[in-house]
Write a structure and sequence with these properties.
One of its GO terms (biological process) is tRNA aminoacylation for protein translation. It contains seven helices and three strands; from the N terminus they run ααβαααααββ. With 167 residues, the chain is mostly helical.
């Protein structure tokens, strides 16, 4: 009962009474367990945070108060190409082999241009689209602008970096 207020005194009393069980202050800290759900939430947060940062930087460069923001998530086909390129880069860093295998598609060129900047994890189309759609209200309140999230087949939209239009 007195442990929260006088922890050292209560430990001394506990020891004098002959109790061998360690009190909380002697126990080690619990280990952090990373579950699959934690990893998924971290990735979802990363998608949202990166997009919000990109919008902030764009607004800063354009020096304007946005009325509307359009976010275009890369289409499913781009995610498939992206994941193939990242998978191949994990196996073999020989870019010429990847070009031969994947072709000289514009997206492949863009991704292979700076292979060290590519994240190791694979990207998921549904996750990116759903996270940004669910966050439309949050982004709208944050920037005081109308926000629209949709799929985009535009070349500027790549997995992990959606196309952003600010008006």
């Amino acid at each position: 009962m007195i442990h929260p207020i006088f922890p050292f005194v209560s430990e001394e009393i506990n020891e004098k009474l002959g109790n061998k069980e360690l009190l909380e202050s002697y126990k080690s800290w619990p280990e952090l367990e990373h579950t699959e759900q934690d990893i998924t939430l971290e990735r979802e947060f990363e998608v949202l945070n990166r997009t919000v940062d990109d919008i902030k930087n764009l607004i800063k460069i354009l020096k304007l108060q946005p009325k509307s923001i359009k976010i275009g998530v890369a289409d499913r086909a781009k995610f498939e190409v992206y994941n193939k390129v990242v998978g191949r880069l994990k196996e073999d860093r020989d870019l010429s082999k990847i070009y031969k295998e994947m072709g000289r598609d514009e997206l492949v060129k863009k991704l292979i241009k700076n292979p060290n900047k590519l994240p190791d994890e694979l990207r998921d189309y549904e996750t990116e689209l759903n996270v940004l759609k669910e966050a439309e209200g949050y982004i709208s309140k944050l920037f005081k602008a109308k926000v629209q999230v949709s799929e985009s087949s535009d070349d500027k939209a790549i997995p992990g970096k959606p196309k952003i239009e600010v008006e």
